[in-house]
Amino acid sequence: MLIVRGGRVIDPSSGVDEIADVVIEAGRIARVGRGAAAGLEASAPGHPDVRVVEAAGRWVVPGFIDLHVHFREPGQEYKEDIASGLMAASAGGYTAVCAMPNTKPINDTRAITEMMMARAREAGGPRLHPIAAATMGSRGEQLTEMADLREAGAIGVSDDGRCVMNALVMRRALEYARNFDLFFSQHCEDHHLTAGAQMHEGEIATRLGLQGWPRAAEDIIVARDLILAELTGARYHVAHISSLGAIRLVREAKSRGLAVTAEVTPHHLLLTDEALLGYDTSCKVNPPLREEADRQALREALRDGTIDCIATDHAPHSALEKDCEFAAAAPGLIGLEPAVPLLLELVRDGVLSPSRWVEAMSTAPARIGGLAGGSLAQGAAADLTVIDPDADWTLTATSLSSRSSNTPFLSREVRGRAVMTVVGGEVVYEHQPS
Ligand code: DOR
Question: Taking the model in full, what pTM does it have?
């Protein structure tokens, strides 16, 4: 039995935000409430099967769920493998992560999905849910065997990193995904409009002399896909939404009741293309950092629920792939460990209430992926995170469990961190103060 006592329990799934105890038994939430642990603690001292965690001053929340991470196994384990990725996830307070298929080879078969699941079981810690490829080799031509992929453990499909450009293939992929109860996460980029692009198309790109990726390349795909989602009735999800036009389209589709969802990354909520003024390759990412008007629109859309959730798009790359000319640098940045301290800024700045923040980090992604977790209701899987919202610390490469440290936020003084991560009632991470 695990008792988390006296913390601020924030559980949007049951509308709870109060000082309470959480009692966990046999991997499930047994009881939550003021005094729920009363009497039980008495049996704790010296009892090997009862652990009491004092959580006064801390937040106790359903464990975070990331719908979008890149663990590089198989193929590029020098950047990250499943074990190091899961360690980074648990240190960041994540109890479940969804791994995108752009590994080497691409996860487009049952064998690779099964291998990933097996590696995750060996590693232990957070739950790993593969998102398998929608088309073979993510080439956008031939559909994958989605029934096999689902059986092997995939919970969604995507060609992330690539967009399914052919509308007929996309229509069939949505129909197929719907039949096997998989959601479709689209990387919305018209590759014809972005050929050679290095960053967002705008004034900063002109000043830097870098070729730009116009918002239209994202908006065109979102518009087309929403039409196809309506036609097919599939569960369609916009990955890493970044432009204000795409937000408008999703808002309109939701107002008509379409089964459409969207995620936004921490970097698109926090940064703009101005971060690239020094040719900082750590800020090179797809889709690119956009302008202040987009950043504000993303924050507002996350607040009002047009954007359902936050996903990190954790994209580890080695120093070799980042310490080079801008055009040669790989796009992407790591996100799992910096997420909580960086995103708590949104609560401190009054953009999100604590409850909406937890919903965007946990309850909403659980709903979209159809996953265990996302709730501290009695009987739910005991996946939870304890946060110290006031811990001051500095993000450094040595403080990270990830194998890569490509983030522009290194050396940043931050406030707040996950101090304990619990999956299925087991403590998988505990911060050791140095
Ligand atoms: O910046 C990105 N990096 N965007 C993607 O869509 C893929 C990702 C990666 O795999 O590195």
Answer: 0.98
